[in-house]
Design brief:
The protein is an alpha+beta fold. The protein contains five helices and nine strands. Helix 1 crosses helix 2.
Length: 211
């Protein structure tokens, strides 16, 4: 899309492609959400968007993507990549920041269709956006946060070399729950072979960065 080059931005890894979703991709992404993204009775998200009927979960997913497109500015941006594995949309991997040209800090967040858990996909898609953050956008730090009982997310974070960065207590569906914060400085990031960023230069002005 000539006037919004983010739709041409993608990241490829040995097994995955991360891209902004097309409308057809959004339908498939909604299907993944409707199928389920976590076990019943457990909530890994601060905002419980997944705690609704499958049809509404699919619609929530599509609307969230539309909001991220419409609210994107250089001062406050969010890119929600559709993750493609073996020709299927399997989840989303987000990267977002505020005042990035000055602060050079990016946050990440993701979800993966439940039937694709346990295959190392979550780790690989996080590595992909870290590659974008550090190698592509020149980030100084990447940060993330997860509930203390979200063992899968915590496992990925620790595997990738993040450092503990404190805790926060949240109200999760009426109960206090602790999240752990993590920070990955650029000097502790290890570049992975086979990870490539495509069509980034024309997108840099949208992030407030020079080409």
């Amino acid at each position: 899309m000539r006037n919004w080059p983010l739709f041409e931005l993608s990241i490829t890894t040995p097994r995955l492609e991360l891209r902004l979703p097309s409308l057809d991709d959004l339908d498939e992404l909604g299907d993944r959400a409707a199928e389920g993204v976590h076990e019943a009775g457990y909530m890994p998200f601060l905002f419980p968007w997944s705690d609704v009927e499958p049809v509404q979960r699919a619609r929530n997913t599509v609307q969230y993507q539309f909001r991220s497109w419409g609210e994107f500015t250089a001062a406050s941006w969010q890119v929600e990549f559709a993750v493609v594995y073996e020709g299927q949309i399997v989840g989303t991997q987000g990267i977002m920041a505020k005042d990035f040209p000055v602060i050079r800090e990016a946050r990440t967040g993701s979800w993966l269709g439940q039937r694709f858990h346990g295959q190392g996909i979550g780790t690989e898609m996080r590595r992909a956006v870290l590659h974008l953050a550090f190698a592509g956008l020149g980030a100084r730090h990447a940060v993330t946060e997860a509930f203390e009982d979200n063992h899968a997310s915590l496992g990925v974070t620790r595997k990738l070399g993040y450092q503990e960065d404190g805790i926060t207590v949240h109200d999760r569906q009426g109960k206090p729950v602790t999240t752990h914060r993590f920070r990955l400085p650029r000097q502790d990031w290890t570049e992975s072979p086979g990870f490539e960023i495509h069509n980034l230069p024309k997108c840099l002005p949208l992030f407030g960065l020079e080409t």
